[in-house]
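Question (not urgent): is this output format expected?
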Amino acid sequence: MEEKSEFDFEEFKKQAIKGMYDGKPFSGEKGIFAPLMKHFLEAALAGELESHLAESKAKGISNRKNGKTSKQVKSLSGEFELESSRDRSGTFEPMILPKRQVIITEELETKVIGLYGLGMSTRDISSHIKELYQMDISATQLSSITDKVIPAMQEWRSRPLESIYPIVFMDCIHYKVKEDGRVVSRAIYNILGIDLEGKKDLIGMYVAETEGAKFWLSVLTDLKRRGVEDILIACIDGLKGFPEAIATVYSQTQIQLCIVHQIRNSLKYVPEKDKKAFMADLKLVYTAVNKEEGFRQLEALEAKWGKKFIIAVQSWFTNWENLSSFYEYAEDIRRLIYTTNPIEGFHRQVRKVTKTKGSFTSDTALLKLIYLVVQRISQKWTMPVRNWSVTLSQLYIIFGDRMKFHNFEKTHLKTTPSE
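Got this back:
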């Protein structure tokens, strides 16, 4: 095949200047700089191939050029057909522009991933890119770009963790996902940890169709594998099978059921006309000075309302052991652990981004978006939670032996975190 002639830079200059006077854009689909970008890339690919063939020859491997290939490439300089040579053995893997890559600007890819992370649909992103860069990008190409975050997401989900977390909050958020031609429900279980510095960190993100002891055992085993040796307090909202699973993996962890959710669930079984009076008596239970006084007030609640609202009252007795953990602590810790509000607040921020999605094409697409949202939200998690210095001191009084095991005194006692 006849070799392609050298790039005529003088001719390019004349055409570019003419294009400028004709009002053509510098970039975009018919950008005047597209021919120059095409030349640079084709020259770079030719150089890479020559180097590859030379390396093959030095190793005694027979290989040579074997015709041409072309593909339509999009860049901020314009869209053009890129030609490059193939090698006979098919071992040539270009570095400057991999074989299946058709978009060559990191700026554009970063823009696409950023917009996707804000919850924009592929249609809206396409329109936005068209408006900014005069470039048409298909849904398939957009998906290919956003898929580039998958390796980073997988690495993040398996990253090493701290050896101890004083407090963790666990809750789930539900979505619809397409599977085998039908739409199914998916629950994303998130685990928000508070580390020894009092800072938030989403330490786990797991997909499950149903919850249960087997599922939670796999989650807790994964946390253990990633370095978590101890959890002091786990705050949950009645996760099925969780108490049994955590007793196996972290046998010393205290469980605190969310008081706010327990109150809401109780009020479902109380008619509107009695709610105010019932709540006045129930408040005496969860605001009691200690566990014994709380249980005494619960018995008083049962004596007054038990026959009338048996389900509302009995659920407190059934869950009392895991509802009453917070009584052991002073006010600052009580305020922090009696509700799963910290992770619910995080979920509200996630929902703001994902609420426009009717359903996701796959579990991976769902996780990909949540991961990007997490990365943006977590940038604000730079300060300790409120009154953490006091909270940490109280935790040390109660759990000192376990915290010493994790070098707590050496790393934190002399320099308690500032508020």
